[in-house]
Inverse folding.
């Protein structure tokens, strides 16, 4: 399994030429097409050594992308990290809030907190274990989710 620290550094969707909303079957199709194109055995003998090296590197990246995006668990983790990175790039964190300070909603099994704009921050019970940044559903404010302990 890939180290978590490596995951957000590369855009694995871009490496496969796919959109983040692509289905796993679409990702698999793109992976299979690219892996054949860049496979070391498919390179002709008269290609310069540098080009062969680039193809091998591309082949390795494509394989790494599929290992992350082809597995439901690692894909979900990668998508959450991408989302969190996007939030970090949006602007500064408005506040730090402990999960225990948020309101529990039994109907949809989520935690929520009112934002000063009138909107709300919400996170599902499962996501609360994995995410640290939550954006307001109305404005651009972001809170950092903390856990006691």
């Amino acid at each position: 399994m890939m180290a978590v620290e490596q995951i957000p550094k590369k855009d694995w969707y871009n490496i496969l030429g796919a959109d983040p909303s692509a289905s796993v079957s679409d990702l698999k199709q793109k992976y299979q097409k690219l892996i054949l194109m860049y496979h070391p055995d498919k390179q002709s003998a008269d290609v310069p050594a540098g080009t062969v090296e680039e193809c091998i590197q591309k082949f390795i990246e494509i394989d790494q992308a599929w290992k992350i995006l082809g597995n439901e668990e690692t894909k979900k983790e990668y998508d959450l990290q991408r989302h969190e990175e996007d939030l970090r790039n949006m602007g500064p964190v408005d506040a730090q809030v402990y999960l225990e300070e948020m309101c529990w909603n039994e109907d949809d099994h989520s935690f929520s907190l009112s934002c000063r704009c009138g909107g709300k921050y919400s996170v599902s019970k499962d996501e609360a274990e994995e995410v640290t940044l939550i954006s307001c559903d109305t404005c651009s404010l972001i809170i950092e989710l903390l856990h006691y302990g």
Summary: The radius of gyration is 20 Å.
